[in-house]
Design goal:
With 251 residues, this protein is an alpha/beta fold. Helices cover 43% and strands 15% of the residues.
Length: 251
């Protein structure tokens, strides 16, 4: 059963949908009427996502398995979407990796690995998506950054550099694409309850929560609901914004 028609008939590509924030965004978009091309790297890893949807909406999830670093496969997916629907209304660049290292321990290999997935792949996806969006004269691109990309965090200099790059890319792309009625915004989540927090013990978690003004860890739905707004026509005059979802955290 649909929650609303906010995204009725909108065609969306979301990367990194097999878990966490990406999975929640995909579910939320489908529940609000969208046709979602859901990306993951590993074949079959989206079956759980599809299984959590009502039977009447399962066909609105179209799994597309590819590595976002493979430019040829990225292009093939965009070509497929164009063939199927002749349009792409929204791109959500969610796929990313996080690896931490202190200054003095950061290697060139680590930097390249992080930038290839978190920055270069995002640029490729944006450029191919814009080819479709420019033809239809409209579109919304949502990039997932991080609070460490706007505020920084000790021990995450390499990762925060990639998320800071997303902030700059989003602001610049919004200026270039505004004349085409293509909006580009970014979401900067704080501490969100995903499997990345699974190994944190209770004492450490309590310390983290003490730094959050709202007194709780963020939910994936907190991020997904903002993405829903940015993908919908409710935000048709909003572009170039970096919106934090962090419950007033001290860093």
């Amino acid at each position: 059963m649909l929650t609303s028609n906010l995204l009725a008939e909108k065609v969306v590509l979301i990367t990194g949908c097999n878990r966490g924030i990406g999975k929640e965004i995909a579910k939320t978009f489908v529940m609000n009427g969208a046709i979602v091309y859901a990306n993951a790297r590993k074949d079959g890893s989206l079956e759980e996502l599809t299984g959590e949807l009502p039977d009447s909406l399962k066909t609105n999830i179209i799994p597309v398995y590819f590595d976002v670093n493979d430019v040829d496969l990225v292009k093939q997916v965009i070509v497929r979407i164009n063939k199927d629907h002749k349009r792409l209304d929204c791109l959500v660049n969610n796929a990313g990796i996080m690896k931490d290292a202190l200054i003095g321990m950061v290697t060139r290999k680590l930097m390249l690995e992080l930038f290839e997935t978190n920055v270069f792949a995002v640029m490729d996806l944006m450029q191919y998506a814009v080819k479709l969006m420019s033809k239809q004269g409209a579109g919304s691109i949502i990039n997932i950054s991080s609070i460490v990309g706007t505020r920084g965090n000790a021990g995450q200099i390499a990762y925060s550099a990639t998320k800071g790059a997303i902030v700059s890319m989003t602001k610049t792309a919004s200026k270039e694409l505004a004349k085409m009625n293509i909006r580009v915004n970014a979401i900067a989540p704080g501490v969100i309850q995903t499997d990345l927090l699974a190994d944190i013990d209770k004492h450490k978690m309590d310390q983290i929560i003490c730094k959050i003004g709202m007194g709780r860890i963020g939910k994936t739905s907190d991020v997904a609901n903002l993405a829903l707004f940015l993908a919908s026509d409710l935000s048709e005059y909003i572009t170039g914004q970096i919106i934090s979802v962090e419950g007033s955290i001290l860093m």
